[in-house]
Structures are given as structure tokens and as C-alpha cells.
Amino acid sequence: MDVVVVTAVIAALFVLIGVAEPLAGRLRLPYSVMLAALGILIGAGASFLLRTELTDALNPVAEAILNFPIRSNVFLYVFLPTLLFQVTLGMNLRRMIDDWVPIVTLAVVAVVFSTVVVGYGLSIVSGLSLVTCLLIGSIVSTTDPSAVVSIFRSIAAPRRLARIVEGESLMNDAAAIAIFGLLMGFVMQGVPDPSLWGAVRQFPLLILGGVGVGVLFGQVAVMVMATFGRFELAQLSLSVALPYLAYIAAEQMLGASGVIAVVAAGLSMNVSAPGALAPGTWTNMREMWDQLAHWAGALIFVLAAILIPRLLEDIAWVDVGLILVVAATALAARAVILFVLLPGLALARLSPQVDRPYRAAILWGGLRGAVTLALALAVTESARVPPDVKRVVGILATGYTLYTLVVQGSSLRWVISKLGLDKLSPLDSALAKQVVAVALQSVREDVSQATENYGLSRDIVRSEAKSFGERLEGAVRAAEGSEEIADRDRVTLGLIALAGAERDMILDRFRERAVSPRLTDRILSDVDRLLEHARHSGRLGYRRAARRAVGIDPSFRFAVRLYNRLRISYPLARLTADRFEILLLQGLVLRDLDTFIDSRIRRIHGRRVAEILHDLLDRRAEMVEQALDGLRLQYPGYAEELERRFIRRTALRLEKREYDLLYEEGLIGVELHTDLMRRLDRRFSREDTRPALDIVLQKAELARQFPLFSELDEATLKRLSKALVTRYADEGDVIVTRGSAADTVYFIASGAVELRMSRQSWRLGRGELFGQLAMLTKTARRAEVRAIAPSTLLALDERRFRRLLRRSKAVQRAVRDSAEKRGINVPELDRMRGQEVRQAAE
């Protein structure tokens, strides 16, 4: 085909992409449905022009469209990696982990179940071979949820719902294509009834091989990009090459799943790149991939839709019946997963609850799109697939895709409206009226001041003031006439607003380079969790999420075990430094939120609600400060270095703001502003490198601060610090259980614990110890020890503790005092005291 013609067609496609989005908005249709409709019209129109005798002038254009060099490999090797890679870069992995059960259920279990249900159902009514029917089932089992996600976002549905659907879209393509590849091999080999066990045995290579290739390529790409430093365009170029290299290497060199390799490479970069690249580079990279994915998604829809008329050329009425069978079985399989399996998992407390209206929207929003058409096209293009199989796969997959787009896609917004997902709750509706009334009162004051400053005509001002006053009176009457909002609901709404303000403040700090992208994603995940828990459980949920944000996460616990058992310190050092930075930022943001409550929330919800919110913030600030105190105690020198670094970064941020203001006011020119920004970038780059943390030295420093160890000489203290094992406990964690073996003594470095025995309880804090009495009396533990605050403990085994006890009179006194408080006689302490008396007498 002539290069000029190809170029013209490509340009026309981009014009079509640009026109489709505003047209879809005007017609209130999902964007993907509009693209598919336009593609079908173009394909049908081109076919009509070639067959009609009305005109031959447009035949070259029609031939160029129908013969455009687009094949299934172009979809799978060019467009699909782009879409998958962009989704992985934009994912909030920490928040995805919270909903991994429903995501995996919809993306993997639902795909396998749908393949089997559609395959066997079609086999029963069609007379086709089982392997052919299963192949069709795998092709139609992958969904394209872009339409339902866009509608969810337009109606401000909870972020969690969009995350579940986006997570499904990322993983179900990989699962469906992996199953398709296995079944396609059976079809080409002419196997009528495949061995499922033989297919299952091939999955480890497909999945693990793809994961291995993706992680390897992702990590190598990040390391190479990190060495390029200030060459941002080179780093962006490498990111473009990464998904394609991973896909080709997995498919062609290892025989693994290229789709899984792309997903693994993207997830690997999502985890590693924010800490290795400059914040601006990471932001620009994600924006670039957003644009590339927008183009790729639109092109794949249009080009695939152009092929639909060709694939349906020889459709018969019996084929229409089979398409309806596919539609019914696919919908039934998805309904079983959504309305039977997911509620069952939630009932068993294995999965968070997904509300029924949202499950219904996900069910009807399970549109099939470009990936289904691309897989069907791959079957029809294969020379090793029998012609009758090509025909039935092409017609059924294409017909079912068209059915979902026309029937489900065009009615999706109506279904969402009937489910009530596009309407405000009664609480939000009542609040909206009060917000409007408060906002208009503020606007009236500001407009009055502005008109005085501008010296406008009094008649005009009086006329507009009268009109505005009428609107304000109407808003006030509506607010007074609405249902009264209970204080409990006002607190919930205030907490939601508070979490939203906290999110905005953190994003501002990120834009000002006060915090790295990697830590920003983690902090925003905690804020999103605050918002969702407040929305669902009010104050109780907000407190629970706040404790979790300050607590010790599983990755930190794993790093502690890794250090304690294998002496590998890097993960723990990195996560400890991360924790310090996060707590510092949380403390600063919480102070700013106090001002937000007084300036904004108090005016809408009143003084009582504001006081409750202040109290909740004070409790959060106390938890953050307590955690920071524990870190300062453990790492005093390092704490000072981080705080100095934070001050320097703050100064640079304020300096940049001042230069930008001078430039906007025209007091400095563009050349001087550019030079000043270049100097600041160099200084920012120096401050981006965080000081290293030596865990071993810091633990020795921590042991040195214990009053119980004050009598030990330097050599003994050094040996003791190596023997001590660090353990972290969150509020509520059980440290010691009743009846357990008494083989360890714990020293409290920070935090507090509670000992419970029968009807008695004791509370211990920093500098105290527990677990020693059961050890010395050689009895099973009779007390349960539970952390009542985030705590850092130093554990010592029995042999080393007895040696310490013989050497330290301070430890002996502490053990003796604790035994006297609980009325326990410790013979070993009496023997030690007797020996001391005899030695003194001698």
C-alpha cells in the first residue's frame, strides 16, 4: 500500500479519535462504545462502496481502509503491551492489595469459570468439538471494563469500586490469553478432547516464566535509567522500550506468557522507579504513558471494529442462536461469581464486602472489546486451524462482542441510574443544601468588598445585589427546610472532608518536592483508607485506619525477621528511614488540618462537630508523636540528620516558590529564572539522597540508653547489643501468651504493654522488662502480655539473660522489685543476695 495512503488513513484515525470523545459525551454513551460504532460504520461503509455501482471515485479510499495492514499480531504485540503497561504504572499497589481477593476472583477465577461454562454450554447445543467450544469460551471471557470505569468516575463512585474493576482488567487479559494459547495449541494439533491435566501442567512455565522475565527486565531498566541522571528524555525512551522487550523475550525466547511478562515489568517499575528517578521524571513518565495508552486503546477499538462487518459476512440464523447461547452462558457464569462466590467469601471473612448495586453494575458492565476481537482474528488468520473452526470462532466471538457493545454498552448508564448509583444519598443531599447556603453567604461578603474596591456604578451593584440576595434567601430556606443531619452523620461527613483535605496537602508537598513519589503513593494509600473507613464506619473506622497508618505493616515485620535471623540489614534500614519520613510528614499535615477544621468545617457542621474532629486529630497526632519518639530513642543521630534534611528541603521549596513569584510578577526575566531553577535543581538532587542508616550501630546506641544497662562496661554492652533481638508490636498485638515456654526476656525500648493474669493487670513502659519471673522460677507463663501502644522491644534469650543478671546489680534490683510487686519469691535472687552478703563479709 502506498505510504501516502497509509499516512492519510492514520491521520484520519486520529481525527476520528479526537471527535469520538466529545460526541460520546453529547450522546451520553461510553467512549469505547462510540469508537466501536464508528469503526463498524467505517468498515460497513467501505464494503458498501466497493460493491455498489453508484460511484467508483471512492473505491481507492475504501480499498485502503479494508486492506489497511492490520493483523492480530499488531493488536497483541503493539497495542496490548501499551495498555497493560500503562495500567500497571498508574496502579496504587498498596490499595490494590487490600482488595486482592475480589480482584483475583473476578480476573482469574471468573475467567476460568466462564471459559468452562461457555465451552460446555456451547458444546451441548451446537455439536461442535469440546476444544473448539472451550477456545471460544476463553476468547469471550476477557472483559473490557473501560466503559463502566469511566461512568463510575463520572458519577463520583467510591475509588475502591474503580480499583476492583481496573485490577480485573489488568489481570483477566493475562489469564484469558494464557488459556487461549493452550487451547489454540490443541486446536491446531487437531485434539478434539483436550486433557485438562496436560493443560494445567503447562501453566507454571507460562506464568512463572513470564513473571521472571518481567521482573528481570523491569529491574534492569530501572537501574539503567537511574544511571542516566538528568537525561529525562533518555529515561522516557527506555520506558517505552521496556514492555515490548519483555513481551518478545517471554514469548519468543522462553515460550512463556508475554502478557504476564509485561504486567510483571510494569509492577516492578511501579515499585522501584519512584525511589530511583527524580520526582518530575516519574510524573512525566506516567503522563506520557497515559497519552500513549489513550491512543492505543482508541486505535485498537476502531481498527478491530472495522473488521466486524468482514467477520460477519456469512452469518446465518443458526449462528445468531449460538451467539445468544454464548451471551446467556457468559452472563450466567459472571453472575455466579458476583452474586454467589463473592458474597460467600465476604461471609467467610475472606474478602471485603462489595455492595449489591455495584456487583450488578459490574455484571452488566462486563463488555467485550478489542482483546476479544484480536484473539478471534488470530484464529481466523491461522493456516493450521480448520476452515470450519475459523468461521464459527470469528462469527461467535465477533457477534457476542457486538451484542455486548450494542445491548449492554448503550444501556449501561440507564442501568446505573436505575441502581441509584448516580444519585446523592439523602444525607449528602441535605448537606449539599447547607453547603450552598454557607458558600453563598461567603460569596456575598467577598462580592460586596470587591465592588467597593472597584468603584462600580451603584445602580448596577444594587440590582445585582438584589438578584443575588434572592438566590441566597432561596438557598437558606432550602437548607432550613431539609431534614436535620444527625451529629453522627455530620462527624462522618467532616471526616470525609478532612481526609480529602489531607490528600490535597500531601499532593501539594509532592509537587513541591518535599516528599518522594514512592513515599507519596504509600501515604496517599493510607489517606484513601482513612476516607473509605470513615465513609463506611464513621469515627470507629477512621480510628481503625489511623492506627493502621501509624502501625507496623507486614513488609516491615518481614524485614525485622530477615535482620534478626540472617543479619541482612538493608531492607530494615530502608523501611525504617521510610517510616521516619512518613511520620514526620504526617505530623506536619495534622497541624495544618487543625486550621482547616476551624476555617472550613466549623462553618458547615458547627462547633460541636469541629470539637470532635479536633479530638480525633489530637489522638492521631499523639500516636504519630509516640511512634516518632520511639524512633528518636532508637536512632537519635539519624533522627537529627533526617530532620536537618527536611528543613533544608523546605528551605529550597520556599526559595523556588519565591523565584516563581518574582517571575510571574515580571521582576525577573526568563533567562534569569531558568538559571535560578537550574541551580535549585542541582541542590534538590543533592538533598534527594537520603543518609544511610546503620541498624547495628543504632541498636548498640539504644542499648546504651537503657538505665538497666548503665553499670555494664563498653565491651559487655557491645556483646549484649549483638545478642538483643529487635521486635516490634502494634497496639493490640499479643506478645506473650499464657502457658508458653519461658525462654525469653523482653526490654521495652518504647511504647507500653499490659500484663494480664487472672483478675489482675499491670502496665509497663519504657525502660522496664517482662518475662523474667517465669524464667527464673522455671514455670510456664501465667500472664498474657499485650501491647497497648506501638512498641519496640529488645528480646534476650535465657542463657544470655542469666549471664546479664549475674553481672548487673541494676537488673537484679529491677527483677526483685517486679517480683515483690506481684508477691512472687525468686530463690535464685535470694542466692545471689546471699553470695553478695558473704563476699562483703569476707
Automatic annotation (TrEMBL):
The chain crosses the membrane at residues 6-24, 31-50, 74-93, 100-122, 128-152, 173-191, 203-226, 256-280, 292-312, 324-348, 360-380, 392-416. GO terms for molecular function: potassium:proton antiporter activity; sodium:proton antiporter activity. SMART domains: cNMP. The keyword Iron does not apply. GO terms for cellular component: plasma membrane. One of its GO terms (biological process) is regulation of intracellular pH. Signal peptide: none annotated. Pfam families: cNMP_binding, Na_H_Exchanger. It comes from the Bacteria. It is a multi-pass membrane protein. It is found in: Cell membrane. SUPFAM superfamilies: cAMP-binding domain-like. InterPro entries: Cation/H_exchanger_CPA1 (IPR018422), Cation/H_exchanger_TM (IPR006153), cNMP-bd_dom (IPR000595), cNMP-bd_dom_sf (IPR018490), RmlC-like_jellyroll (IPR014710). Keywords: Cell membrane, Ion transport, Membrane, Sodium, Sodium transport, Transmembrane, Transmembrane helix, Transport. Residues 708-822 form the Cyclic nucleotide-binding domain. Its main location: membrane. This is Sodium/hydrogen exchanger.
